[in-house]
């Protein structure tokens, strides 16, 4: 298991690709052959960006200042914020309020000098984004020669330090040899920037029939399949939403596919359990563990040991209860794992 460590390297260069008819399961406008595909999945998988609604990401739509403040706030871990009436157009109940106040308190954003407004619904420009990222990094002082860009004279005095830092560090390589400082940033470009800023990558998986590995190859047998059953013990559901692998205490539990550990926890029913996001809207739950090896935030590979079989929670004996969820809905694991 390995943690993804931010290396703070990004680029504002726009790239274009051909689109196929295959779309990302969660969003109708995110095409599998689009150059932005992996980036959108990465920010979605890591909870950094969400769609404009449950089925529409907003490819080609401009990013707003309030949205970008929220992105930086999430990257900072969404720290607690006490609301202050700093901007006339930011109310305590606005969805971006905490993010904007946090960013203001930390010197990352300011309002417009002529009006005092923040402009949460205003489109964010390239120089605004670079400046916020520069401040987010701590405003390192770096000089660079911008004369090679024909439009370098359009860079505002207020954004010059950030633009020089970005160019000196290869963060901006130019948009058709132009800095385009007043150009508007679209949502998929932002997703790509954030993925590179984090030094991350999307873990592509073989989600589909037969694509996953057996999560418990050391099991003695499968004791219960998905669907209706006679409850094996008091408190256990008769509507079984997973697959049970009967095995001895301590038997290895493996990641069924590559992905990111998004939750490690305990409940009285599930016992010790772990949840892995395998991409493409697929999450798997591994329950009743005696020991959990992986930690939240880990990137794991298919077949990697993540836990050990136990009898925690509501059980009639030691086993792995394995669930597969497609966009939050439990489905028969036999659609994915080998028999």
UniProtKB/TrEMBL annotation:
Taxonomy of the source species: Bacteria, Bacillati, Bacillota, Clostridia, Lachnospirales
Domain SLH: 23-82, 83-147
InterPro entries: Cell_wall_metabolism_enzyme, Dup_hybrid_motif, M23ase_b-sheet_dom, SLH_dom
PROSITE patterns recorded: SLH
Keywords: Repeat, Signal
Name used for this protein in its record: Peptidoglycan DD-metalloendopeptidase family protein
Record organism: Dorea acetigenes
Signal sequence, start to end: 1-25
């Amino acid at each position: 298991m390995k943690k993804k460590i931010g290396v703070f390297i990004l680029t504002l260069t726009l790239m274009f690709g051909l689109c196929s008819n295959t779309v990302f399961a969660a969003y109708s406008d995110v095409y599998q052959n689009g150059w932005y595909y992996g980036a959108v999945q990465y920010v979605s998988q890591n909870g950094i960006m969400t769609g404009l609604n449950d089925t529409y990401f907003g490819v080609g739509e401009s990013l707003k200042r309030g949205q970008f403040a929220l992105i930086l706030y999430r990257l900072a871990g969404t720290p607690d914020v006490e609301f202050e009436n700093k901007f006339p157009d930011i109310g305590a109940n606005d969805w971006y309020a905490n993010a904007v106040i946090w960013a203001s308190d930390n010197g990352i954003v300011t309002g417009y000098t002529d009006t005092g407004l923040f402009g949460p619904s205003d489109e964010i420009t390239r120089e605004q984004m670079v400046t916020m990222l520069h401040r987010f990094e701590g405003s390192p002082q770096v000089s660079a020669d911008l004369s090679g860009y024909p439009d370098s004279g359009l860079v505002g005095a207020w954004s010059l330090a950030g633009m020089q830092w970005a160019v000196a560090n290869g963060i901006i390589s130019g948009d058709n040899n132009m800095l385009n400082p007043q150009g508007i940033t679209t949502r998929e470009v932002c997703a790509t920037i954030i993925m590179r800023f984090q030094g991350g990558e999307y873990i592509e998986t073989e989600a589909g029939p037969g694509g996953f590995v057996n999560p418990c190859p050391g099991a003695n047998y499968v004791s219960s399949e998905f669907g209706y059953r006679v409850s094996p013990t008091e408190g256990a559901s008769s509507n079984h939403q997973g697959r049970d692998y009967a095995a001895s205490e301590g038997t290895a539990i493996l990641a069924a596919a590559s992905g990111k550990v998004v939750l490690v926890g305990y409940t009285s029913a599930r016992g010790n359990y772990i949840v892995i996001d395998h991409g493409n809207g697929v999450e798997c739950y591994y329950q009743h563990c005696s020991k959990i090896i992986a930690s939240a935030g880990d990137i794991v590979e298919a077949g990697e040991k993540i836990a050990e079989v136990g009898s925690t929670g509501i059980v009639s004996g030691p086993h792995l209860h394995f669930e597969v969820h497609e966009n939050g809905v439990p489905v028969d694991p036999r659609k994915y794992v080998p028999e």
